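Progress against Task 2.4 (sequence-to-structure conversion) is shown through the following example record, which the project officer requested during the mid-term review.
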Amino acid sequence: MAGVSDSGRRAPPAYQEYAADLLADRDFRSMSAVERGVLFTMRLECWCNESVPSDPAALARVLGLNDLEINAGLTPRVLRHFASQEGTEGVLVCPRLNTYRIRLDERHAALSAGGKKGADALHRGRRERTTLDGQATEQANGQATEQANGPLSRAEQSRTEPNPVYRVTNEHAEFLAANAGNAPFEEAAARRRNGAAVST
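Structure tokens generated for the chain above:
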């Protein structure tokens, strides 16, 4: 399928062109404008669809050019950049672009493998930290339970024993008994509600 690599991911949308290398090529500098146009259009088609037809008439239709342009541009200097595809007749490929595409796929696979390895290490570290935290919490809870169920310290015993002063004198009960009943203002309010005259 065009636009999709063998790995099932979207094919790379672009390729690098080294201008200095191309301009240093004597064959390229000797090309006419038509030859250069046909060369670059064929390379673009090969990048998108991996190949072009070798038949000039079919190539003209695929590239959207007329027969005169193809006949003028499809010279040995242009065809030098292409090769017949093994096992397929009537098809040309660009070996340089194919090699470049393979390198991009290999680089993507290496980056993907490195990313998965890093993610696995991160998740493994998180799981280990969670396990250690759980063990620490369990240990702390066990120590707290042991302390709660163990013998009381001297300070804890003194806190749980009733205060002898309040046990003997019971000051709170005496205060409640002395102040039982309504306060004077509460009694006056009650008489007002009942319609009785209240002396001031």
